[in-house]
Design a protein that fits this description.
268 residues, alpha+beta, endopeptidase fold (from Nostoc punctiforme), 6-stranded antiparallel β-sheet, two-stranded parallel ribbon, 8 strands
Length: 268
Amino acid sequence: MSLTAHIRSHRKPRRSASTIAMRAGVASGVLGTLAVGTAAGSANAAEPVTQTLELPVLTGDLAAQVAQSAQATQQAAANYQLHAERDAAAAAAAKEAKKDLADAKAAAKKKAEAARKAAAERATRNAERTTLSTTASSGSSYSSTSGSTATGSAAAVIAFVKAQIGDAYVSGGTGPNSWDCSGLMQTAFKQVGIDLPRVSQDQSTVGTQVSLDNLQPGDILYWGKAGSAYHVAVYVGDGMFVGAQNPSTGVAEKPLSYDPPSGAVRVL
């Protein structure tokens, strides 16, 4: 027996075929597992691609929803604006109606005041006429002039107004064929060089105030108060006067009892 027979060899022992086959199988299994994991990983990695392909559809739906929401918002804003405009119009109408009511009340108050004033003036005139009529019926009024005859300037004035009898009455008329009361008086007295004011209110304050029971031909008669007279005429004697009365009678000669005057002024 050799001296080295019990000494182990330093060379690696040979692997058996079964060991090699087992290791190959293990390696194959590991590789298979890796392949399966890789495939699964690849599959999982592919899924986002599939989801990404579906995104346009989701994006389209979202855009439709956004557009619908925007349209609804716009419609709501339009409705709000319409309501606001209606409210503003209603407020303006209410304000205008309130103003119209106030104006109507003011106008009614003014009209009532004017009617009251006119009624008071009519009552005063009626009272004055009643007094004058009573005096005339007693025979004491105008007695000193009942038979007087006009001379000089008075005769010229009376001749002029009598020549206009039958002419029409027209408010603002100053001749030659139509007159109002003060227009006739102004033109008549201009024939003798006397310039009278244009309106009856002013004509009732010229010259000297005279009593109605001491009238003379050529005196200017007035109806109403001195300074606010509403009618004038000229006394022609014998208890008569001539004036542009109204549209129905025109220029006419009437007795003092027809419409007793309120007063008289003398300018001749």
